[in-house]
């Protein structure tokens, strides 16, 4: 920015540059009809030739002389008139320079203001960027914590299912174990009678009848038959559990979904309360590349929910499981005639942690986990429910064309 402000003491050489002097000097000399010189305030020659005896006329601007007009053979009146003419030109030039200076100062001030504003914006942007990075880091940390806790809740839900499953299986296995133990105890007694008969062989038929060995042989055979059935029953339960948990299988395989439904149903049947029945209506299905263990968990969870819905209704009921295949894919329906859901409950049913169960009776992850499993198999799951009438869960899995 220029240092020439409103309070600047202007010099004649500052107002008239060489181009201006070359333009107006000859014209003024011609008007005066003689030699003409234009001098600065310190009598430095700006234009023309200065004779030793030249007359000087001061050029006054803002009450102070800023230079001189000098001529040797020039009338005083003409010299004064020429000086006034030059003064008028200088005033016009001064106004132009002052306006130009004002404009430059305004532009410079605007520029400085913009620079200051830009610096403030940069500083503010830096603060906001730092704040944004801190908030992003906090959000990531909170999301990590939420994901960890959500995973813990999912695991807790799985453990709760496993606990219920284990309790049902323990009860189911204890029954055959109980009569197997009783049968073996009785059979041990029978073996004692046979051993006693060995010591009384001399008595012959009398000892045989006294020890009632005819009955021992008949009942012993029945005991061994019942024991074998109990062992077969335990073996079947273990096989169902092994199949249900998907042990010794590949992570993904070509499977029959009907088998997954049967495995889940065989587990549920061992835990059915009195008055609640389970019916399977399964039609032949094409094979599907899937995770059988996940589908077992899916169907077990949905069937258990259906049983709980009937229990909540406080009346006997039926859980019906059906399957069929069409041109589009595989369709599974699990229907119960339990307590049902309102429209609001149905809309929130798949939300994680939403449950209509009492506090401590459920984590609200059953249907959310079921939906995740169905989506992982490129399928879809829908609910159709009416309060006090029942609920139907419909599942669709697309099959390759």
Structure write-up:
The structure is a single chain. By secondary structure, the protein is an alpha+beta fold. It has 3 domains: 12-117, no CATH class; 148-239; 251-398, Histidine kinase-like ATPase, C-terminal domain (Heat Shock Protein 90), CATH 3.30.565. The chain is built from 9 helices and 11 strands. The protein has helices spanning 12-15, 18-32, 76-199, 205-210, 213-245, 257-269, 292-313, 343-348, 366-376; strands spanning 37-40, 45-48, 55-61, 64-71, 253-255, 276-282, 288-290, 317-325, 329-336, 380-386, 390-398. α5 (213-245) crosses α6 (257-269) and α7 (292-313) runs antiparallel to α9 (366-376). The protein is rod-shaped. Residues 359-364 have low confidence and may be disordered.
Structural classification = alpha+beta
Number of domains: 3
Largest beta-sheet details? 5 strands, mixed
Named CATH architecture of the largest domain: 2-Layer Sandwich
Kindly provide the name of the CATH class of the largest domain: Alpha Beta
Ranges with pLDDT <50 over ≥5 residues? 359-364
State Rg: 55 Å
Number of strands: 11
Q: Record the strand order, biggest sheet.
A: 6-8-9-11-10
Helix content: 55-70%
Count helical runs: 9
- The averaged pLDDT comes out at 78
Strand content: 15-25%
CATH fold title of the largest domain: Heat Shock Protein 90
> Which superfamily, in CATH terms, is the homologous superfamily of the largest domain?
Histidine kinase-like ATPase, C-terminal domain
* Separation, N- and C-terminal Cα atoms: 80 Å
Assembly context of the chains: single chain
- SSE series: HHEEEEHHHEHEEHEEHHEE
Overall body shape: rod-shaped
């Amino acid at each position: 920015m220029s240092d020439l402000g409103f309070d600047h003491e202007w010099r004649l050489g500052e107002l008239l540059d060489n181009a201006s002097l070359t333009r107006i000097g000859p014209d003024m000399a011609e008007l005066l009809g003689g030699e003409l010189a234009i001098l600065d305030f310190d009598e430095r020659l700006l234009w023309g030739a200065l004779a030793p005896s030249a007359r000087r006329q001061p050029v006054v601007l803002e009450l102070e002389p800023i230079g001189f007009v000098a001529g040797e053979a020039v009338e005083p009146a003409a010299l004064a008139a020429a000086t006034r003419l030059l003064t008028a030109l200088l005033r016009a030039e001064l106004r132009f320079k002052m306006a130009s200076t004002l404009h430059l100062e305004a532009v410079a001030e605007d520029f400085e203001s913009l620079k200051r504003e830009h610096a403030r914006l940069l500083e503010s942007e830096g603060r906001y960027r730092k704040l944004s990075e801190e908030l992003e880091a906090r959000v990531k940390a909170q999301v990590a914590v939420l994901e960890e806790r959500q995973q813990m809740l999912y695991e807790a839900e799985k453990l709760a299912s496993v606990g219920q499953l284990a309790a049902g299986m323990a009860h189911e296995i204890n029954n055959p174990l109980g009569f197997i133990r009783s049968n073996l105890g009785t059979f041990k007694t029978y073996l004692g009678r046979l051993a006693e008969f060995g010591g009384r062989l001399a008595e012959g038929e009398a000892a045989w009848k006294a020890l009632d060995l005819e009955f021992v042989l008949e009942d012993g055979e029945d005991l061994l038959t019942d024991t074998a059935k109990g062992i077969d029953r335990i073996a079947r339960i273990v096989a169902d559990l092994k199949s249900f948990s998907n042990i010794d299988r590949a992570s993904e395989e070509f499977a029959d979904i009907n088998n997954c439904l049967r495995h889940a149903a065989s587990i549920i049947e061992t835990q059915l309360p009195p008055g609640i029945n389970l019916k399977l209506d399964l039609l032949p299905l094409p094979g599907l590349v899937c995770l059988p263990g996940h589908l077992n968990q899916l169907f077990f969870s949905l069937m258990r929910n259906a049983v709980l819905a009937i229990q909540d209704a406080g009346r006997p009921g039926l859980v019906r499981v059906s399957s069929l295949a069409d041109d589009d894919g595989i369709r599974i329906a699990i229907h119960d005639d339990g307590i049902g859901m309102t429209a609001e409950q149905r809309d929130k049913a798949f939300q994680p942690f939403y449950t209509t169960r009492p506090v401590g009776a459920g984590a609200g992850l059953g249907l959310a986990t079921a939906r995740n499993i169905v989506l992982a198999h490129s399928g879809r799951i829908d609910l159709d429910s009416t309060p006090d009438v029942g609920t139907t869960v419909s599942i669709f899995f697309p099959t390759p064309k």
